[in-house]
Structure formats: C-alpha cells, structure tokens
Amino acid sequence: MVTADRAPVALNTGVPHIARIYDYWLGGKDNFAVDRAAAEEALTIMPSLAARARANRAFLGRAVHHLAAEVGIRQFLDIGTGLPAANNTHEVAQRVAPDSRIVYVDNDPIVLTHAQALLTGTTDGATAYIDADARDTGKILGRAAATLDFTRPVAIMLVAVLHCVRDEDDPHRIVSALRDAVPSGSHLVISHPTKDMEPAEMTEVAARLNRVMSAKVTYRSHAEVARYFDGWELLEPGLVPTALWRPRHAHPIEPKAMWAGVARKT
Ligand SMILES: C[S@@+](CC[C@H](N)C(=O)[O-])C[C@H]1O[C@@H](n2cnc3c(N)ncnc32)[C@H](O)[C@@H]1O
Predict the structure, then answer these.
(1) What is the spatial distance between Cα 136 and Cα 7, in angstroms, rounded to a whole number?
(2) Model confidence at 232: pLDDT above 80
(3) Helix, strand, or coil here: 190?
(4) Ligand 1 pocket test: which of 12, 18, 245 has the largest number of ligand atoms within 8 Å of its C-beta?
(5) Taking the alpha carbons of 168, 103, 238, 61 in that order, is the dihedral positive or negative?
(6) How many helices (H) and strands (E) does the chain have?
(7) Measured distance CA(12)–CA(30) in Å, rounded
(8) CB 185 within 8 Å of CB 179
(9) What's the CA gap between 163 and 21, in Å, rounded?
C-alpha cells in the first residue's frame, strides 16, 4: 500500500538531494548529474564518505536483525527510508519473521516513485509506504495505524534522517511524539552524522552540501544525539560509532562516522 495524498511534487533534478547523494555513495543508480557532482565534491574532501554510508547501512541491517531475531519485534516504522538498496528493513525483518509488518515514510518524491520496490514483502506480513514529512508526526501515526498495531511494541527507526531536521524544526518533538505513541517494549533506532570524529573534514562536507542542497543538514554531537534517548534505556553497547554497534567481527574495519544507538522504552 502506498499512501500519497499530496499533489505530486515535481522532481527537481537541478538541485541535489540527500536521498540521491546517499544513493550515489552507496553505489546506486537512482541519482542525477547534480547529485553525482555534489556527492563527488564531498568525496574529494572526505574519500571515506562512501564507506561511511555503507557502514551506516550495515548498522541498519544489524539493528533490524537484532530487534527481529533477539528481541522479537514484529513491527517497524522506518522514517527517512531512502531509496531502495540492499537489505531494506522489510527484507531483513521478514527473513527472520515473515509476519513482520513494516511502514516506510519518506518525503522525497523520487523515493515515492520507487516505493513500489519496497512493497514486495511476504504475504504473511505487510509493508506500506507513507509519503510524509518526519515533522508531521500526526499524519505519520494516523496513517501507520492502518498497518501497525500501536498497542504492541514497534521499532521506530530514524536512521540517518534526524540531521535533515533543523534545530528550529525541533527534532526532539518528533522523537517524543513517536515515543508517546508506542507501548513499553518498543524500541528506538537512531544513527546521526557528527563532527565529533574528523571535525575539520565533516565541517567542510556539511558546508559544501548545504551550499547546494535546498534541505540543509545539521551534524550533532554525542551529547546532542544522546538527548534523543532521554526516557529510553539504551541497549549495550550504548551510543557508539555505527561500526561498533554489535559488529559482526571483533575488529570492524569500517570508518567510525555516525553515532548509533538502539534503546528500549521501559
Ligand atoms: C541519508 S538517507 C538515509 C536512508 C536510510 N534511512 C538509511 O540509513 O540507509 C536520508 C533519507 O531521509 C529522507 N528525509 C530527509 N528529510 C526528511 C523529512 N523531513 N521527512 C521525511 N524524510 C526525510 C531523505 O529523503 C532520505 O531518503
């Protein structure tokens, strides 16, 4: 099911967009010349950005797998979905439990045009896509209720998206509205780019991207990202670089980039 009730937003292929820049760094093909130029320019400042994007994607996969396989979560609300890539949330969750129910949310028109590719889940479970802005939690929760049972635990996923919400748009209000809508036993998954690691390069990357993108990015510190988890109980190993969140290998070689954590609502 795809829910898109706004007038189709014309794709602006003349302005780079974070979903398509990220797609390029991941090796995807759903991007335009302006996105590739912005992505390449950022890579000249920090060549490890592509590996960092992959490390984030791998974190997403490990977090979903952990929640499905070890915690028994069967419902996922994945906000800031991105373009379809390897190991989308529904694929990881439904490989563990085919009855998993997943709702994807994104506000980018090109993600909407690819949403059908995300809706190929199992017949035992369900996948749905909502075309909405993360800031519009009322719309998201109202629409998601058609697929998710909010009396049962839900994993709220805000993976590499909160940096797209500016301080003046109050990202903490988004997280608390979502927290208030789910019962105890629900989980929160966040990853967030930061300038804490390699600050000079990350400051330059943010400045270059913000010069050309219409939706600006805000990189946040460990303390600022930790605040999103106020009122939640962080699972081990806490808020750590993506590569160090329950790595599959003892000594992960991925670059340490974003902060990542998973927490439980008590
Ligand atoms: C860097 S990508 C991350 C994709 C995926 N979560 C992952 O980690 O692989 C950020 C995604 O968030 C989406 N996004 C950015 N701002 C948003 C907003 N205000 N509301 C909904 N989606 C947003 C973008 O369109 C993009 O698809």
Answers:
(1) 16
(2) yes
(3) strand
(4) 18
(5) negative
(6) 9, 9
(7) 14
(8) no
(9) 14
Which ligand 1 atom is at minimum distance from the Cα of 135?
19
Ligand 1 in contact with 60 (CB < 6 A)? yes
Whether 118 lines ligand 1, by a CB cut-off of 6 Å, is: no
Measured distance CA(128)–CA(135) in Å, rounded: 19
Report the pLDDT averaged over residues 56-72: 98
Asked if residue 254 has pLDDT above 80, the reply is no
Which run of H or of E encompasses 38? helix 33-45
pLDDT at 1: 59
What tokens appear for 136 in the block? 């519009």
Cα separations (Å) of 27 from 23, 54, 62, 82, 84?
A: 6, 9, 20, 13, 12
Give the gyration radius of the chain's Cα atoms.
17
DSSP H or E stretch at residue 24: helix 18-25
Q: Please indicate, yes or no, whether the overall pTM of this predicted structure exceeds 0.70.
A: yes
Q: Looking at ligand 1, which atom is closest to the CA of residue 134?
A: 20
221, amino acid identity: S
Position 85 pLDDT exceeds 90 = no
Task: Report yes or no: 155 and 178 within 8 Å, Cβ to Cβ.
Answer: no
Measured CA to CA, the distance from residue 32 to residue 202 in angstroms comes to 23
